[in-house]
Amino acid sequence: MKRPQTISALTLTTGLLMGAGLTLTNASAAHAADDTVTYGVPAWPGITVKTEIARQLLAPLGYQGTAQDIGLQVIYQGLDTGDVDVFLGAWLPAQNSMLEPLEDDGSITRLATNVTGAQMTLAVPDYVYDSGVTSFADLDSHRDEFNGEIYGFGAGSAASEILNKAIEDDTWGLGDWTLVDTSTVGMLSAAKSHIANEEPIVWVGWTPHWMNLELPMRYLSDSKNLFGEGNGASDVRTLMASDYAKANPNLVTFFDQFSFSAEEQSWMIKQYGQAEKPMEEVATTWIEDHPNRVEAMMKDVTTLEGEPAWEAVREKFSL
To answer: How much is the pTM?
Structure first.
């Protein structure tokens, strides 16, 4: 489950929501001060904790971190206009349709992979998989058992776009199916409820996430690779607004070295999203438990005064 971000560590603003009548600011203002970092943060626990780790690590260097608590499409719009500087959750290829046009026109710079071993595709409970539903191709012959419903985690997400197109194109016979788009909490609550009653359900699953640790689930195979090559194998990239990247090479160096394993991010998600520990606490615990990793992230990075970053971070966290 995801939890709302708290204001104490990240200043949450929602002024980028165009549909709500709020407006974006001028891009040049976003790049006027190189001691601030504005993050785009969708309501996903893993991105929330990673952003807080970045904020805590950069604070001793002199950077002030601010987060925009907004939806995925608005994050990309913010990167384009300069109202968002950094985004740590570019799941590719699922988000390619949003990224590539802005990357092609030079608005966005793609930095390093920040999670290894990620995947997104459809999932079912173990008992459904064991009954013979092991692939996308098996779904339609069992439509009535699923009530013709696939559970998603939010309208406007890349997964929703993929599944809506599959329904529109009748891919794998899904033309008469319905995508039930709620939220991550709603989707996983439905999965838990169905599993408790041993009822069939199919939903959008991904790793890293605590669902892989807590739910008896299997991923369906898909020879058409609707979610991307390797049955949804994902490359989770850090994105930076290009003008901001050019103005802040020190931060580019840092974020090119800022990465985690899928297992580590699953731990973050479980601690924050499921155990409901404060994101500040989860982030600080990870930092204090991984001094060698933090030191590697600080290689060739400096404070705003030009001093070695690792010394400032080591002193701050007593590493």
So the answer is: 0.72
